Amino acid sequence: MTQLNDSNVPRLDQRVTVPGYDRQQILPGIVHFGVGGFHRAHQAMYIDTLMQAGLAQEWGIIGVGVMPGDRRMAEVLSLQDYLYTLVIKHQDGTREPRVIGSICDYLYAPDDPEVVIETLSDPTIRIVSLTVTEGGYNFHPVSGEFDLEHPDIVHDLADPGRSRSCFGLVVEALRRRRERRLPPFTVMSCDNIQANGDVARRMFTAFARARDAQLANWIEQVVPFPNSMVDRITPVTTTADIEELASEFGVEDGWPVVCEPFTQWVLEDHFAEGRPPFDQAGVQLVEDVEPYELMKLRLLNASHQAMCYFGYLAGFRYAHEVCRDPLFVDFLLGYMEREGRPSLAPVPGVDLDDYCRTLIERFANPEIKDTLARLCAESSDRIPKWLVPVIRHQLEQGGELEFSAAVVASWARYVEGVDDQGQPIDVVDRLAARLTQLAASNREHPTVFIENRELFGDLVDSPRFVVAYLEALKLLHDRGARATLEVLVEQARATGTEE
Fold first, then answer.
1. Which segments of 190-308 are extended strands (E)?
2. Can you give the pTM of this predicted structure?
């Protein structure tokens, strides 16, 4: 077995693709916050693809971690000279391992925030990218306003040189660049948030305005925040993944990444000081990202929510198990075709029928082993952004919403903390305590969960939605998840026949 590092790369199994470029010649041009599995399977992979083609040598990535859990990533990557293995898992069981070399350094901000700020202030850094999850943008789920009362934000406003958050670090670096008459960098969000660039602009400028109104005005005027849509299913790396890489390919990697073959990146071409030739790595550079991101959020992401609670309650634990069950496939396709798709405008260059079918095929990949627990986690940051907009559109247009309402009901039932077989459920959510408290009253007070206006706004005031929600919740309580889907699918078929 060979420990992954620069000196050992030539000794790796020939089946493992390795960097064909001189990593010593790579210069940093990007700082990335949130170096997790997705970034390493997606954006870092695209940069590595360009480097393999002899391009983007001045666009090396410096990773930055700000969360306590990021310390382990710093340690693992440092031991491996910032190399890691990306393993693509094909449906037929084929593995495609590839060592990625585009990350050239990693900084753990809590150890020395000043080093991070000065790195960001260096004019060679022209892009600051983010995958900090939906919850990392520090905004209220309903109002969308930046939370100035978060303890880290309070700290960073009082002591900018020792910032704890990405907001404090980035804004302080921009302040120094402005003071030194240096050009700004581009802030490139790669998170699953509708209009992610616009959201990032609002949040960073809100933080800046709390510090200095003139600085905020400068950021609004000169710092680009391009919108993007990113897509690649990247499950959490397991011990089995690490062991399989070692046993089958002889690579000792402390934190490899596994992913599906499919990948997509649609990006608004709006940068301050240049960018890598992304288009030569397959990135779609467009003027308007919105049609693509809504397609992904309301079909892929919302469908993940449609499958995960019902699937978990019914006893499944993996996405591929759910998507090999015809009943669940009918339900997912029913949601997409009857509710998700009608909420979308045409998407340039995309056949939505084919896109929906491809989603089911991707979800059904047994090699990915994407856990339903992962898909069920942090729902309070997901349902309001991915599914609630579909419900609102359907209410406004008089369209169907029974499947969407049932998904909300399945979440409420899931948060009760026990599945249909009586097995306990570990609810992972930033609002877990409050949500489980509400769900405990589901039977006595059936609308209590959707009365949470922070998550659902005024949906509880819509009789159509409430009726659909209550019918689904009652079925879930009385007959269980599977029987609820049988009723919903049969009712949809009957409606289609009548039409």
1. 228-231, 251-252, 257-259, 264-268, 284-286
2. 0.87
